Amino acid sequence: MTSLFKTIVFNNPRIISHVFKRSFTVAELKPYETLAVSVPKPYVYHVELNRPKKSNAFTRVMWQEIGECFTALSNTADCRVIVLSGQGKNFTGGIDIQSLVQLASEADDLPDVARKARFHSNFIKYAQDTITSLEVCVKPVLSVVHSACVGAGVDLITAADMRYCTEDAWFSVREVDVGLAADVGTLQRLPKVVGNTSIARELCFTGRKFTAQEAKEIGLVSKVFPDKDTAMNTVMDIAVNIASKSPIAVQTTKINLVYSQSRPNQDGLEHIRLLNAVMNQGEDLPKSAIAQATKGPPPEFDNV
Ligand SMILES: CC/C=C\C=C\CC(=O)SCCNC(=O)CCNC(=O)[C@H](O)C(C)(C)COP(=O)(O)OP(=O)(O)OC[C@H]1O[C@@H](n2cnc3c(N)ncnc32)[C@H](O)[C@@H]1OP(=O)(O)O
Q1: What is the CATH number of the domain that holds 229?
Q2: Separation of 62 CA from ligand 1 center, angstroms?
Q3: CB-based pocket (< 6 A), ligand 1
Q4: Which of 94, 138, 139, 159 could be cross-linked to 150 through a Cys-Cys bond (beta carbons 3.0 to 4.6 Å apart)?
Q5: Do 72 and 181 lie in a common domain?
Q6: Phi, psi of 173 (to 5 degrees)
Q7: Half-sphere exposure of 124 (CA within 13 A, CB side)
């Protein structure tokens, strides 16, 4: 700690408490240009991709806003679950082609290959962090896909905790068809999500369109619904159910699932042992256990 920081903190304990307990309310979330955020049920936030006239294609602003939104919601105490969907005809058409062309031309204006490479690297990292913000967000993210889910859309949903879709949904790891190796998460997450590297590689090498039914068969989505209204209603019910549980238990579960997904079991076990050595001392465990044992009403939990 620098001496100035020490002086401020020790003389103003409220400042440190403000810094570390920082949380947002819905009113504090900034209005987004490319997202619509609402709270349809207590503790359940709904984030909608909101460029319906352009099939929710990802512009630079959208990359920025998705990252900001999920980071803010991770720290919004009354947000316990997030439902992600898209407005308009399609879930998303992937990266905005015009913005891709614009990026390429900005890189071309740079004087040499090293600077062009740094420019590309910075943007890829930025986009990767945007997608990863869903995984880093400690609140479960339930995604609902309808109609087209292309390119960056697959990156996005594979970073979500759960995936559902409508019968008319279709998917494509389209990157190869636009001359790219997918670079913001699909290659890392899709094989783990579907647990079958052969089918994951086929989808990534061919870019072929696959249906809702195939997505269900390979385990990309949990359930296929006849239409968007039915999908949204059912997924909202699942979200409300999750939101009724101890937020400490749910969020610690997500943190440990994410930590464990690419590590040996022993590391994941060690991680949850250390986490629960602390978390089990909280009030949620006795509250939940007593309610279960006495068949009492579901307990109310403090936000976190
Ligand atoms: C660092 C890099 C990070 C990430 C990289 C990700 C790579 C990718 O995402 S690769 C995938 C790129 N996307 C595509 O190739 C999809 C192109 N679009 C389509 O195939 C279709 O538009 C569709 C998404 C299947 C939707 O078809 P349809 O339902 O028939 O609607 P349209 O009339 O075609 O579209 C409506 C409207 O949206 C515009 N649009 C759709 N997708 C994009 C897009 N990706 N970029 C820009 N604009 C898009 C489309 O042009 C229409 O606009 P109009 O103004 O009405 O013409």
Answers
A1: 3.90.226.10
A2: 14
A3: 54-55, 57, 89-90, 93-98, 123-124, 127, 148, 150-152, 174-175, 178, 180, 183-184
A4: 94
A5: yes
A6: -85, 80
A7: 14
Residue 238 CA to ligand 1 centre (angstroms): 31
Question: For 194-250, how does the pLDDT look when each residue is reduced to its tens digit (9 = 90+)?
Answer: 999 999 999 999 999 999 999 999 999 999 999 999 999 999 999 999 999 999 999
Q: Which two tokens stand for residue 286?
A: 């006795």
Q: Same domain for 232 and 251? A: no
How many angstroms does the Cα of residue 71 sit away from the middle of ligand 1?
26
Do 239 and 251 lie in one domain? The reply is: no
138 and 269 belong to one structural domain: no
Q: How far is the CA of 217 from the centre of ligand 1 (A)?
A: 26
d(CA 206, CA 174): 8
- 83 with 65, same domain: the answer is yes
Any idea which residue has 């996005």 for tokens? 156
Token match 């190796």: residue?
Answer: 181
- Which residues, 6+ apart, have CB-to-CB distance to 233 below 8 Å? none
Q: Whose CA is nearest to atom 38 of ligand 1?
A: 54
**Predicted model pTM:** 0.93
Q: Is residue 215 one of the residues assigned to a domain?
A: yes
Say which residue the tokens 């089990």 belong to.
280
CB 247 within 8 A of CB 156: no
Q: Whose CA is nearest to atom 57 of ligand 1?
A: 54
Q: Which atom of ligand 1 is nearest to the CA of 152?
A: 9
The tens digit of pLDDT for each residue in 144-192 reads 999 999 999 999 999 999 999 999 999 999 999 999 999 999 999 999 9
- Counted residue by residue, the chain has a size of 304
282: containing domain: 247-294
Q: Is residue 16 part of a domain?
A: no
Same structural domain for residues 128 and 156?
yes
